Amino acid sequence: MTSTSVIVRRMQPTDIDAALALTRPQNWNQIVTDWERFLGLEPEGCFVAVLDGRVVATTTTERFGPVGWIGMVTTDPQHRGLGIGRRLMHAAISHLRGAGARTVKLDATPMGKPLYERLGFRPEYSLQRVVGQGRPLEADGVSPYRGETDLLEEILAIDRAAYGTNRGEMLRRLAEGWPEVAAVHRTSGQVDGFVLGRHGHFYEHLAPLVALNAQAAEGLLRWGITAAGHRKVAFDHPLPNQAAAAVAVRYGFEPAREFTRMHLGQEPYLDRPGFIFGTSGAEKG
Ligand SMILES: CC(C)(COP(=O)(O)OP(=O)(O)OC[C@H]1O[C@@H](n2cnc3c(N)ncnc32)[C@H](O)[C@@H]1OP(=O)(O)O)[C@@H](O)C(=O)NCCC(=O)NCCS
Questions:
Q1: What is the pLDDT of residues 255-275, one digit of tens each?
Q2: In a domain, 113, yes or no
Q3: How many other C-beta atoms are found inside a 10 Å radius of the C-beta of residue 169?
């Protein structure tokens, strides 16, 4: 079998079950609503590879102004090493470039990194996924976000300070997914951080968690840990953000996996990891 007998086409909502069947054995945390959000945000930019009528590989894209993001890159273990991942990456990169992205970014697993390096991606920094336990805690200075337009503007300003680009539509959709963990932190009345959690298969994801200082991040984390009830909770923090690592240890989080943030392009749109306590997840930064 060669990769030429494989068809690469746009992903459809009817492919979601097959995509979940591919990713679940790898312990990826995404659920149906995540795939629906990927397709909702970028219906022309999510791809599958099909062999004999069966989905054997996936990838998704998202666009944040000049930055394109690639996620959910996986090939069925039986069909690896045939060039399928490379073909899907080409489809995703050319979609993003055609849509105006000047930089393409992703969070690579150790298995994905060699593929991305061959395609010219360069590393920015490492991230660590940490997993902990939901439980009741007090959270000072935190209040819920309920879709208020003014508050969304403040959330977006903090996010832009961290990511250098507008991720508004993705953040707005995330806030609807788990409203109990859509919250802001205020210090002396000023919004200085936010968290927009989401449900997952294995654990609740307490991020994006973006804050201008460690105290705000800690309050937001306590809020999320509490909202999770007795479920497991997780987030990915940039290793250069030592305050994020310290807060994870303080609340008993254990390291689970590592990623490398990478970019392809002339203008890297580098993040400010000091403000990023929890990324939005490997599949969307
Ligand atoms: C990473 C993954 C998607 C690669 O898919 P694939 O279909 O096997 O990749 P390809 O066959 O297209 O490989 C493309 C190139 O990358 C290289 N490559 C891919 N995975 C590699 C690895 N783990 N180590 C070294 N090289 C690798 C191939 O040798 C090939 O190089 P070449 O084109 O110069 O010959 C697949 O291994 C996978 O699904 N892994 C588990 C999920 C995962 O971690 N995904 C990455 C998420 S960021």
A1: 999 999 999 997 777 789 999
A2: no
A3: 13
